[in-house]
Amino acid sequence: MHRCKKPIISTSLNQPGSRAKAMRWIACMATASALIFSAGCTVGPKYARPSVPTPPAYKEALPDSWKQAQPNAAISRGKWWEIYNDPELNKLEEQISISNQNVLLAESQYRQARDQVRIAHSALFPTVSTSPSASYSRNSTTLVASNQINGTNTAVISGSHADYTLPVDVSYQADIWGSVRRGVASAKDTAQSSAANLENVRLTFQAELAEFYFELHGLDGDADLLQRTITSFEQFLQLTKDRFDAGIASGGDVAQAQTQLETARAQLIDVGINRAQFEHAIAILIGKPPAEVTIAPAVLKVPPPAIPEGLPSALLERRPDIANSERLVASANEQIGIAQAAFFPSLLLTATGGFESRNLSQWFSWPSRFWSLGPQFAETIFDAGKRKAQVDLQRAAYDGTVATYRQTVLTAFGQIEDEMAALRILEQEAQAQDAAVKAAEQSLGIVTEQYKAGTSDYLSVITTQTIALTDERNAVDILTRRLTASVLLIEALGGGWDSSQLPKM
After folding, report:
1. Are 502 and 222 in contact (CB under 8 A)?
2. Dihedral of alpha carbons 318, 319, 322, 327, sign
């Protein structure tokens, strides 16, 4: 690699006419700086958000699920979980931002990215440094050197002497081609991406907590149903024993009734395993040891609220993960410009001044001053295609971020369609299941009366009881699935977030 450099031009006030020369150089440097700042341009592509396929409407949307006049009426910005009107859920969700370690990690990463903006921004300003020194030295008395001054040989002074120096150095990398400004813009884009990632992480764990919460209380519904079933089976067992004592029922009927009862008890015990695991998972999400968290049992009864999904085009502004990907695209675009700026010469402006003396009492006197200033140009003449390869590298990286961005948008549309379909179909399934539960209850009542009257055997009772229990558990599970699907839909819609909440940097 060969560099063509213009030497630093310096002068000293001790030389004849140096004051005039210094004033001329200062004027020239001021003029050059003004021209640099006024004529500086930015090379590289101008950023535009990549286009993505956006449908005019959602395929799975319910006809009456959204009204254009009030697109976000039912989702609270930031505290979307309040739509469920559950104080216990509200209290748990509030702790996610405070104590969840993954959220705190993402928050620290955002602060690091924000600090990188400050670091990049500092390159827009000159660097001023100083390195004062005081040294003492002694020359050898046996060595003699000579200097030719006005044709006369003079010996170098031997013995001890001091040297006091207070230099101040100023350097500035002129941002002629915008590489520094693009570096600042790239850092800002990355910081905004990190801010969006923080919101995405926060939303992910908030949604996960709500899912676990409804799953836990769905198991409470199963436990409540099984407990009522056990009570009913105990009554049937006693009835069967009474009939056996009266010689009406057989020992096989008693054994079957006992089997039904013990099976239900085993199912109730098994529910406790999953419930404990969900409770422990919720404790971890809110940053507490499982031993410190106990969630009181509660049965789910209320179906999910209506969730307005809005227009598909608005999704690009409402998902933090989409904003995250889009900001990374913008940052990658700036990197292309930075790579292209390397094809042009760089200009470094430097100035040095201060005081230097061998006598401490004269250190800060006006005659002890020194200074120099001048520009330095640098240009790479040959690099065997390195800079072009770097531009191509950044373009390939940009294309990769564009593909990731578009895939993120497509995935978001797919998630919304999935959850809207789930809510629509589960609502229909819930209606059918409720009808099945009512029919099973009627059938069980009829078979029970027939068994008591002796017109039906106990096998019919067992079969009907099994069907009724299965139908009721399915109804409980469907309600749980509807609530968790509503949580996933809110998450897929961005949880009430909007890209206008990104920091301006």
Report:
1. no
2. positive
User: SS3 sequence, 420-454?
Assistant: HHHHHHHHHHHHHHHHHHHHHHHHHHHHHHHHHHC
Q: What token pair was written down for 310?
A: 């809005």
**Sequential DSSP letters for 1-22:** --B--PPPP---TTSTTHHHHH
Give Cβ neighbours of residue 359 (< 8 Å, ≥ 6 apart). 162, 164
Q: Under the phi-then-psi rule, with left for phi > 0, alpha for psi from -120 to 50, and beta for the rest, what region is 496? A: left
Phi and psi at residue 407, to the nearest 5°: -65, -35
Specify the 3-state DSSP secondary structure of 354. strand
CATH architecture label of 52-124+178-343+386-501: Up-down Bundle (1.20)
Match 């990215």 to its residue by tokens. 113
Angle at the Cα of 166 from the Cα atoms of 160 and 169, rounded to 5 degrees = 135
- With a cut of 50, say whether residue 289 has pLDDT above it: yes
Q: At what angle do helices 458-492 and 386-453 cross, to 10 degrees?
A: 150
Residue 372 forms beta bridges with which residues? Answer: 352
Task: Yes or no: say if 67 and 203 are a contact pair by the CB < 8 Å rule.
Answer: no
Q: How far apart are the first and last CA of the chain?
A: 38
Residues 6+ apart with CB under 8 A from 438: none
What's the pTM?
A: 0.83
Predicted confidence band at 21 (pLDDT cuts at 50, 70, 90)?
A: low
**CB proximity list for 217: less than 8 A, separation 6 or greater:** 297, 298, 299, 300, 480
Supply the pLDDT for residue 156: 53
- How far is it, in rounded angstroms, from Cα 116 to Cα 188? 8
Strand 369-378 to strand 346-357: parallel, antiparallel, or no bridges (unpaired)? antiparallel
Strand partners for 137: 161
Mean pLDDT of the chain: 86
Give the CA dihedral 315, 320, 324, 329, nearest 10 degrees. Answer: 10
Of 169, 164, 170, nearest to 133 (Cα)? 164
